[in-house]
Amino acid sequence: MTKSADAFEKSLNAHATLVEARLDLLLDAKSRSAEIARPRRLIEAMHYGALNGGKRLRPYLVMQAARLFNGNAEAALQVGCALECLHSYSLVHDDLPAMDDDDLRRGKPTVHRQYDEATAILAGDGLLTYAFDIIASAETPLPDVSKVALVLELSRAAGIGGMAGGQMLDLAAEMDQPDEAGIVMLQAMKTGALLRFACEAGAIIAGRPAEDRDRLRRFGEIIGRAFQLADDLLDITSDAATLGKATGKDAAKGKATLVGLKGTDWARAELDRLVTEANALLEPYGEQAEPLKEAAHFIAYRKK
Q1: pTM over 0.90
Q2: Cβ(132)–Cβ(151) under 8 Å?
Q3: CA distance 91 to 212
Q4: What string of DSSP letters covers 179-194?
Q5: 1: which residues sit within 8 A by CB, 6+ positions away?
Q6: pLDDT category, 111, cuts 50, 70, 90?
Q7: Which residues pair with 108 in a beta bridge?
């Protein structure tokens, strides 16, 4: 590992520690204003689903994108935790028997295996709705106009035209394989939309104009594509012990991926191209953008 890569992973881990400490507070048993109660089994399952490991890459991107523009760090941490709750909900539901039917997530039993299917469904529901609660709460120090913008963009990224829609297309792809354009759209929705939001959110938190929001949004789209491409590459080149989840699932289900369609050599060359394009978008911001550039490199070339 190079010194630069080592420094990045230390920074990523330090941010993950901050995020996990805040999630631990947010997902405690004490009910909040206007809540009647927090049922013990539900909050425990939500806590388990959100705090069972992971890189915390999405909140890292929120915090670094906000830092790029000197945005409010406390607000960025809160929004990053909201995004992590929503991402965790998607994993809890994605692992269910009706979806990908996985027994392992991050090397640990999935929520429906640790608890039961009904509890896992409700834990996912709770994490999804809590994401918007966190953004809208008084504890997130942002003006209302910024909160509304964040809620709208996250809703669009997670909903019909984003992650949920992408998951629907992914299920359909098991029966009717999409062409290359269809795969790109599916992956941009299922995986890329939340990464796109993470980057644009930093500009929203900092109150930046449309030009900066658009530039960070495009950066997020590119690294989202790189993330999925790297994921598909790892699915055929790595193993379950390294990844902490089953491998070879797409091939077993007959799902089309860009790696399967165009080969591993093409995939590696495409990752190089995407990183170069992502870095070029951040050139106007100079050295301040180095953490985001390092994140793009990490996403494309990670080993797990």
Answers
A1: yes
A2: yes
A3: 30
A4: -HHHHHHHHIIIIIHH
A5: 9
A6: very high
A7: 105
Nearest alpha carbon to residue 113 among 166, 52, 158, 57 = 52
Question: Using one digit for the tens of pLDDT, what is the confidence trace for 40-94?
Answer: 999 999 999 999 999 999 999 999 999 999 999 999 999 999 999 999 999 999 9
Angle among Cα 103, 106, 109 to the nearest 5 degrees reads: 35
Report angle CA 162, 166, 170 to the nearest 5 degrees. 175
Residue 3's pLDDT is what? 61
Residues composing the chain: 304
List residues bridging with 109 in a β-sheet: 104
Q: How far apart are CA 201 and CA 178, in angstroms?
A: 31
SS3 54: coil
Query: What whole-number distance in Å separates Cα of residue 92 and Cα of residue 85?
Result: 10
SS (H, E, C) 106-169: CCEECHHHHCCHHHHHHHHHHHHHHHHHHHHCCCCCCCHHHHHHHHHHHHHHHCCCCHHHHHHH
User: Within 10 A of 42 (CB to CB), how many other CB atoms are there?
Assistant: 16
What the block records as the tokens of 273 is: 């191209």
- Chain centroid to Cα 157, Å, comes to 11
C-alpha distance from residue 5 to each of 106, 116, 291, 297 (Å): 22, 39, 11, 9
Q: Which residues contact 16 (CB under 8 A, 6 or more apart)?
A: 54, 55, 56, 60
Token pair recorded at residue 59: 């909140």
Angle at 144 between CA 74 and CA 24, to 5 degrees: 35
